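Re-running Cation efflux family protein to confirm reproducibility after the cluster update. Everything else is unchanged from the original entry.
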Amino acid sequence: MATRKTRAASFSIASNSTLIVMKAAVGFVTGSVSILAEAIHSTLDLVAAVIAFFGVKASDKPADATHPYGHGKWENVSGTVEAVLIFVAAIWIIYEAINRLIEGSAPEMLEWGVVIMGVSVVANTLVSSYLKKIARETDSVALEADASHLTTDVITSAGVLLGLLLAKLTGWSVLDPIVALLVALLIIKAAWDILNKSFGALVDARLPKEEVDAISSLINEHTSKLVEFHNLRTRKAGSYRYVDLHLVMPKTLSVEKAHSICDHLEKDLKDKLKIDYVTIHVEPCTEENCPECQINCKKRPSDLANPENTP
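Result of re-run:
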């Protein structure tokens, strides 16, 4: 999995590097602030791709003595850094576009801009689709963030392309900085979405509600072997999912039987819901405050005590 993720990140780096050179060259030749904005946007995409490359390499390192819980959060760190960089770029684009509106200068040789924006739309569509595919298959936060950047780049490049075509056909040079401002707003939206998702894992936000509900439902399928569960906690670090919970079991259960039930539940969580790490704390119930325990302890003693009935 690590090889596929790093290969995808490397491909993104190569693609972005090529587009940056082309956009920057055409932007300076034509004097188009919208093309230069796109060059800056692609530069940030390159930085994001580089960060994603090192992020996925770092996150896939196995746990060690210094990091006993692994290195998964490096992907979230990379996503957060990418989002901050995109915010900075958007502010710069807005500043340059406003200056161009005030000065009223017009871009030249717009046909070159039309060509490069068309190439950018096609290239980034292909690369972003590839990155999304690998991100889904490997559950990589860093690659997902990189793919989101490129998807935004496709939208903004298409917008710039339309603006250049209209400016060429109508002679309204004011369309160039206006399109640049729209590009900046889309970039800010993309940055916020990435920051919201990446930073949440850094502060141990729980898994999405639908995943938590699925976990609870699976645990409830095992209630015939236990009394109840509580203190269910979930979190995610990079592509790794963590679950810990307390299981209340009849106090007459042997340690061997309780351990077997925990192993079975842990296996189900990993196999069926793709949970990477499961921690279970077992608690004995008391007859005086738990009617369910009385039923389990008094009505099914042979079933609970017989190791052969282990799930």
